[in-house]
Structure formats: C-alpha cells, structure tokens
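In this section we walk through a basic example: taking a raw amino acid sequence and producing a predicted 3D structure, encoded as discrete structure tokens. The instruction is simple. Fold the sequence below.
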Amino acid sequence: WDRPDMSVVLITGCSSGIGMAAALRFARNGDTVYASMRDTARADKLRSAVAAAGLDVHLLELDVTRPATFGAVIQQIVTESDRLDVLVNNAGVLRAGAFEDLEEAAIREVMETNFMGPFLLARAVLPQMRAQQGGCIIMISSLSGIAGLPGDVAYTASKFALEGATEALRHEVDRWGIRLALVEGGLYATGIFTASLPDQALLPPEYPADSPYRPLVEQRLLEVRDRLPEAMDPGIIGELLVRIAGSDGRQLRWP
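The resulting token sequence is shown next.
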C-alpha cells in the first residue's frame, strides 16, 4: 500500500494523552485529522492546543462502546474526505483492583472499551479500506499486553485479547494492502491512572475495606504512583504513530 502524501486519519480517545498528542502530530504532518472522543464537551484542551499551533483538526463524538454509531461516523468522514487511510484505536480505560474484588460490570466495561470497541471499529472501517485497496489500523496496546501483573487482571486481559486478535486479523486483510500494528507502551503521562488513583487515596472509597487482597493492590498502586513523575511524554507516541502509518507494514509490534 502506497500511503497518500496527505492521509485521512481517525483517532479515538483524543480528549487527552496519547490521542491528543497523535491528533496534533498527524495534523502537523499535513494529514486530515478526525479527532474523536466520547464527549466533545471535554475537547477544550485539544481545541486550545490546536489553536495555539495553528492547525486544523475535525472534532467528532464517538463512543467506542456504541458500535451502532460507527457507520454514521465513517460515512461522514468518507463523504467529506473521500477516503479513510489510518485508524488509531487509542481510547481505553483502567480499573485497578484484584480480580476477585472487581465488580463484573467493571470487568465488562474494560473489555468493551479496550477490546470489543477497537475491534468492532476496525471491522467497520475494513470495507472502505478494501475498496480503496489500502489502509493502516494501529491498536494502542500496552506492556500489559505482554506480561500480567497483580491488580491489573482486567486491563491485562483486554490488552492480551487485543494483541492476539490483531495478529490474527493481520493475516486476513494484508491481501488488500491493509496493514495492522500494535503499539506496546510503558508508563506515559496520559491520565489513565486518575480513576484508580483519586487525589491522594490509593483506592476509591467503594473498594472493599476488608479485602484480603487490599494490601497487595495498595502496594502495586503505590509503586505506580511513585513512578508517575517518571512518566514519559505522550508526544513520543504521537511521533511513533506517524512513523508507523508511513511504514511498509512489515513490523507488527512496536514496543
């Protein structure tokens, strides 16, 4: 697949972190960027950054847990821009806690947001990419998609699923010039830990006080919180995503 000089790019989860960094970097590259998020009321930070940099970015409302809305979003992009070259599946959630302590609803939320959403959105863009004989789908995975740690079962499960399914899907669609890639990031300053580290508390108030796992989970979260000052700039991932989108597609995993 010969990537166009100016690609049309759809990115999920752009209100902050990696998604916002990616939107800005692709826009600086001259690409047509559709930056999506669950609630565009949270787009102020992105709007300010776009305005300060003198860039042009299209804002879209897209909730990855509502696949019934995907078709209309993709149709809007293709109607306005004639094609869709790159999909960056970035939106994700983290619900820290021991597996036995987590509510079933929380586990399902993580799987729906981090795995089902990205894969159903990828499926939704495939007909357009097949029709144009090319495209690039980038999944934001994690080092948690390679190794599991205590207190991280749900998130780890979602990323392992993302890794395996992406590897399998790659073999189905490469005949049409559609490339897939996995980005396996470490600790970045994305804000994803906010829900698990509210203010100075290690665990949210609703976490079971008498859980036999509580000391273990608190220790893990303490380690993470202590390392947050070392978290890297999401802009590094933004740079990498542009590089991946312009690559030949031979490399699947990008640690």
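Looking at the output, two observations stand out. The radius of gyration is 18 Å. The longest strand covers residues 32-37. In the next section we compare this with other chains.
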